[in-house]
Amino acid sequence: MIVQIMPNRSGPVVAALVYDRLCTFEYGVAAEVFGLPRPELGPGWYRFASCAVEPGPLRAMGGLTVQVDAGLELLSEADLIIAPGWKGVDIEPPAPLLEALRAAHGRGARLMSICSGVFVLAATGLLDGKRVTTHWRYAQALAARYPSLRFDGEVLYVDEGRIFTSAGSAAGIDLSLYIVRRDFGAEVANQVARRLVVPAHRNGGQLQYMPRPVPERENARLSDVLAYVRARPDQPFSVADMAQMAALSERSLHRRFLETVGEPPASWLIGVRVECARELLETHDLPIDEVARLSGFGDAANLRRHFRRRLTVSPSEYRATFGRTAAVSP
User: Fold this and answer.
1) Nearest to 54 by CA among 112, 96, 3
2) If you write DSSP's letter for every residue of 165-233 in order, what string do you get?
3) Could you tell me the maximum CA-CA distance found in the chain, to the nearest angstrom?
4) Contact yes or no for 158/152 (Cβ under 8 A)
5) Which of 168, 189, 207, 300 has its CA 20 to 30 A from that of 56?
6) Is the pTM of this model over 0.85?
7) Span 121-176, pLDDT tens digits
């Protein structure tokens, strides 16, 4: 397999690190989201390239051998650098790679890790004191090796400004779509997600895994209620309403939510409404009062309170950054 930079484009350069014993799935996530040609999105789409961090040819999971045209010099051109996993939690990344990553970040490039790729970013020292995540099974190893990191083992991904870390391999898809959403807006991210046949947006704070399975029959019944409420966020649903629809007591509903969703029903309902408000702010120029009504918050004050609590910014600030009239500036 020979990997080249995508030609004839004018968009930001995304560089994926390639190393011996490459994690094939994690690399595939990066290539699929950022490297797949998308002519319908115009010439400003990402330019994807791969960067060999050591001499090749390099082996990859699944019995593949990877030959990469570019070396570490590519990182001086990259706008986003992805560490798609790493060969081992106890294997120190090569010093030239760490120096190149520090230099790239210093000039403004963004860094992203998928799963065990966080060990590469952590080795640079750039994550010291920052909140990060990785696959839950690497929690102890990461904490032991890099105690200055603020590890969060429950979330899908973490945004620390210009450094992003994701949990298990599939969470790399969620983080990649999150970055597309930031760079090009919700409509483009939705197009990419549809082509991948995955949800367009899973909140980074969602749990990595549920503590124990729920019986299929009960799970199906609750799923019907969740789908019904999600489709009607403007309706004045209460926890009591959802309990009645699920034919459960409020106490039982609370327990089912914790087992299945990972949070109480009232918190989940607020999250659904915040997500609805986000989409309206990204795709429409409606007054804030109307966004509040359509997302189920009722009035602008209620929307602002919950929106800021969840996302740390006001609805107006969010629209200025992610709305359809905002400048696209990765």
Assistant:
1) 96
2) EESSTTHHHHHHHHHHHHHH-HHHHHHHHHHHTS-S---TTS-SS-SS---HHHHHHHHHHHHHHHT-T
3) 63
4) yes
5) 168
6) no
7) 999 999 999 999 999 889 889 999 999 999 887 778 899 989 999 988 888 998 99
**CA 84 centroid distance within chain:** 13
d(CA 200, CA 324): 17
Which residue from 61, 114, 119 is spatially nearest to 92, judged by alpha carbons? 119
- For residue 12, report the phi and psi dihedrals to the nearest 5 degrees: -65, 145
Please state the three-class secondary structure of 15-48 as a single string.
Answer: EEEECCCECHHHHHHHHHHHHCCCHHHCCCCCEE
Residue 232 to residue 296: CA distance in whole angstroms: 9
Note whether 183 and 330 are within 8 A (CB).
Answer: yes
Give the CA distances from residue 235 to residues 37, 64, 221, 297, in Å, rounded to whole numbers and listed in that order. Answer: 40, 52, 20, 9
CB-based contact 133:151 (threshold 8 Å): yes
